[in-house]
Amino acid sequence: MQYTHINVESKKNITCLHLNRHKKLNAICFKMVEEIYHAVSAIDTTGINALFIFGRPKAFSAGGDLKEMQLLDQKEAERRSNFIHKTFKLIQNLDIPTVAFIQGICFGGGLEIALHCDIKICDNTARFAFPEIKYGIIPGAGGTVQFPIQVGESAAAYYLFTGDEFNYETAKKIGLVQKVVNTTNFKQEIDNQILFFSEAAADSLKAIKQTIKLSRKNNLDSQYSKEAQLFSRLLFKNGKSRIGENFLNKG
């Protein structure tokens, strides 16, 4: 498969996946998700120690492609939400560590990609938000499931209900990110992590990942399915897209 919206490369024995819609601030279109699914499915973890996911300095990802969402009916919106869930859970359930390196904007669907990684490392330009409430919808890529698990119900409720933006300091405080690095040192941090994971014992990494997966809450499939149903119902209400109603003012 030829990729248009992502780039994939290997460094040592690390797979590096770069989101590649720079002119759109890495807004996540469905074609990008399909490419991510194909790329992650193709990873042979017998020879790979970790998956690293990158955006760009200005934006890890601004979130879902709102213009694309306007064109969906309810049935297609739910189908796509379920496929996005499948794709992001594929990242989460790899038997190797997954690390998101975040700079700049990390909103909506972009934050949901990061939530499905084992480790989140950001710099001091990183900004986070779930702005979906401002469009009359909800996150549709696992945010309502994973965010409360990872940062706690109260913190998740506040940022999901209000859509408020928060910075790297708050992200570290609530446990969303595990490490914050100064922008000037971010490239060196990436190089350090590539070196560390490439030289770490592969069987130890996989054993740790296996036990982490066992400790995660079970039976989340119904929660993901419910999110897809609610997302599609809210997106396409009264015969038209709510994104279309709000896009000119908030898009």
Keywords:
alpha/beta, 2-enoyl-CoA Hydratase, Chain A, domain 1, 11 helices, disordered C terminus, 251 residues
Q: Specify the overall morphology.
A: globular
Q: Unreliable segments (pLDDT under 50, ≥5 consecutive)? A: 247-251
CATH topology: 2-enoyl-CoA Hydratase, Chain A, domain 1
Give the name of the CATH superfamily: 2-enoyl-CoA Hydratase, Chain A, domain 1
Q: Could you report the average pLDDT, rounded to the nearest whole number?
A: 92
Highest CATH level, the class: Alpha Beta
- The CATH architecture term is Alpha-Beta Complex
User: Beta-sheet strand percentage?
Assistant: 15-25%
Task: Give me the secondary-structure category.
Answer: alpha/beta
Distance between the termini: 32 Å
Whole-number total of structural domains? 1
**N-to-C order of helices and strands:** EEHEEHHEEHEEHHEHEHHHEEH
Q: Could you give the count of β-strands?
A: 12
In which order are the strands of the major sheet placed?
1-2-3-5-7-10
Structure, explained:
Strand 11 (236-237) and strand 12 (240-241) form a beta hairpin. The strands form 3 sheets. A 6-stranded mixed sheet has the order 1-2-3-5-7-10, with helices on both faces. Strands 4-6-8-9 form a 4-stranded mixed sheet. The protein has 251 residues and is α/β, with parallel strands linked by helices. Helix 3 packs antiparallel against helix 10 (221-235). The protein has a single domain, classed as 2-enoyl-CoA Hydratase, Chain A, domain 1. It is globular, with a radius of gyration of 17 Å. The chain has 11 helices and 12 strands. The longest helix has 19 residues, at 74-92. The model is unreliable at 247-251 (pLDDT under 50).
